[in-house]
Amino acid sequence: MKLEHFIARRYLFAKHKINFITIISYLSITGITIGVAALIVVLSVFNGFSNLVTSYLISFDPHIRIEAVSEAAQKELPQLQTSLAKESLQYVTPYVKGKIVVVNGNLNQVVELKGIDFTDEKVTENFEGKMLLGDILPQQSTGTSEILIGAYLADRMQAAIGDTLSIISPSSVEKAIASFSLPKIYKVVIKGIFLSNNNEYDASLIFCPLPEAQNILSYKNSMQGIEIKLVDEQDAFPLKEKLQARLSDEFIVSTWYDFHKDLYSVMNIERWVAYALLMMIIAVAVFNILGSLSMSVLEKRRDIGILKVKGATEASIKKIFLLQGFYVGIIGTLAGFALGLLVYYLQTTYKLYPLNPLEYKIDAIPMNLRLTDFFAVGGASILLSTFAALLPAKKASEINPVEAIKWE
Question: Residues 6 or more apart from 175 whose CB is under 8 A from it?
Fold first, then answer.
């Protein structure tokens, strides 16, 4: 056991009467404990909501989308799809999409029409559990142009299952203008109404079988791009890099993160702002460490002088007080971890803060612990606590032993 550690622990933990310095030290530990616990809890809540949002989005989105931006690139897509289908992926499927005008009586709305392969069971699995009314489109054509429409869009259009809507595409308008005739109107029947928990999709998206979308959007028999679903969504990022290295600039490769990058960026900013604000609690506790150790240096002035007379170096004296700050940080941080874990256990087990599932779609505030948060919070807490001891440690190391003993 090194002498510096022994003395530092003795100064902190030795039995003595309670004085002002001791009270400030306890307040420092309490402040760090509260700050660390608050950070762990708040970051866990952010993690929980982030995971919840991500699960909602990727359950409806592909993990990777490859979009051809030229006709030449579109011609390469069938061969690319065949090549990717040989790899260990959940599915690789073509798609086309584009803006259209949908009309129901006197109501009209500009929305996005997306054609996908409803003959692929793995593709239609995305709609399982999300059909509010009606059914998923059948794998075999019924001879009727049927669509799936978002719940909010159906409400705006005052449309219900079995209603017939009119669709006008930009390409049909262009052809009508060129030929001085009326644009072609496509009639479609609502087969199902979906609720994806993504307001953007639910308010502006219509699905139909790929061949019908190709016809409406004038893609003939070509495809606009390829969508890929993976076993693990995190594999999308390395796969994107491989595809970008393999494909030309005429292809745009996007991941599930890229689809909603602005949303994830805002959530990340909010997370770090909360981290910075709650670190202020720890910062206040750190100032208490500075004050208590500064007074401790005055109180232990004679002891420091005796230690120097007995051969203690300035570095040893400085280390004693730095270790006191370090120990306060360690104790407060560990206690904060324990308190944060207790709140996490109570919330996940007993749902201390419940939510209305009809309004929020979940029955309690979600929490998710990440090891990186413990390192980030614990590291910052201990580092700040040790840093706060620098000035008192420096003053202690500069004390003249003769004057210190004579002063006593």
Answer: 181, 183, 184
- The share of the chain scoring above pLDDT 70, in percent, equals 91
Q: What is the rounded distance in angstroms from the CA atom of residue 369 to the CA atom of residue 261?
A: 23
Q: Does the pLDDT at position 288 exceed 80?
A: yes
Distance CA 105, CA 191 (A): 18
In this prediction, residue 402 carries a pLDDT of 61
The answer to whether the beta carbons of residues 367 and 348 sit under 8 Å apart is yes
> Is residue 154 within 8 Å of 111, Cβ to Cβ?
no
pLDDT digits (tens, 9 = 90+) for 151-207: 999 999 999 999 999 999 988 888 878 777 788 899 999 999 999 888 899 999 999
- Alpha carbon distance 250, 244 (integer Å): 10
Structure tokens at 100: 């259209």
Q: How many Cβ atoms sit within 10 Å of the Cβ of residue 187?
A: 10
Listed residue (381, 294, 373) closest to 48, CA to CA: 373
| Cβ(239)–Cβ(145) below 8 Å | no
The residue among 105, 55, 98 whose CA lies nearest residue 207 is: 98
8 A C-beta contact, residue 399 and residue 301: yes
Do residues 102 and 218 lie in contact, with contact meaning Cβ atoms separated by under 8 Å? Answer: no
Q: In 3D, which of 32, 378, 24, 81 has the Cα closest to residue 227? A: 81
